[in-house]
Amino acid sequence: MPIPTTSSRTPSLKSVAIGAAVALLSGIAINSIAAAAPGAYDKQFLSKAADAGSTEIAASKVAQSKSTNAEVKKFADAMVTDHTKVADELKQLASSKQIEVSDQPGKKHQAQIDKLSRLEGVQFDKEYAATIGVAAHKDAVKLFTDASQKASDPEIKAFAAKTLPALQHHLEMANTLHAAVGK
Question: Fewer CB atoms near the end CB (10 Å): N or C, the chain?
Fold first, then answer.
């Protein structure tokens, strides 16, 4: 005589298959979300890079209007052009990663620009070349070098690596400018 079984307690093959499919798809969705979301380091890099770039642009616009030195103006023109292009690329990259970055200098950098704006003549040129030219580009080269090696997101890492040679060139230009106006 067969023993009756309760089918409600024994999972059917269909319900096991559905449960396995849900678990598998949930795992895939979680993994793809985790892979697509840049880590804290990447977000911090994008934020710092945006701040550095917007500072270069704002300070260089001040130099375009305040400086009477042709070399300083030429350097400032190049900084506005080059950093605006990079800032646009950075904004587009950040947006594609659902990361918001500012297009304005942070408080610390804005104070630096305000201080620079109060200077005149040779004093302005020396300070601009030293702080915005040399010091800011040393910081940017370090920031982008680190990100080109440490960023977890491949697109962010590639952006940092692609941008780095231009920043290194800017640093060389800034050193030359600083030596020229420092005399």
Answer: N
Per residue in 129-167, pLDDT (tens digit) is 999 999 999 999 999 999 999 999 999 999 999 999 999
For residues 71, 72, 78, 82, the Cα torsion angle rounded to the nearest 10 degrees is 150
Q: Where are the domains of the chain?
A: 39-181
Which of 142, 174, 143 lies closest to 50 in space, CA to CA? 143
Give residue-wise pLDDT tens across range 73-120: 999 999 999 999 999 999 999 999 999 999 999 999 999 999 999 999
Residue type, 140: A
Kindly write down the DSSP assignment for every residue of 114-137, as one continuous string.
HHHHT--HHHHHHHIIIIIIIIHH
Rg (the chain; Cα; Å): 26
Does the pTM surpass 0.85? The reply is no
The structure tokens listed for 61 are: 């616009």
CB-based burial of residue 130 (10 Å sphere; 0-12 exposed, 13-18 middle, 19+ buried)?
Answer: middle
Name the fold adopted by 39-181: Ferritin (1.20.1260)
Under a CB-based contact definition with an 8 Å cutoff, are residues 155 and 46 in contact? no
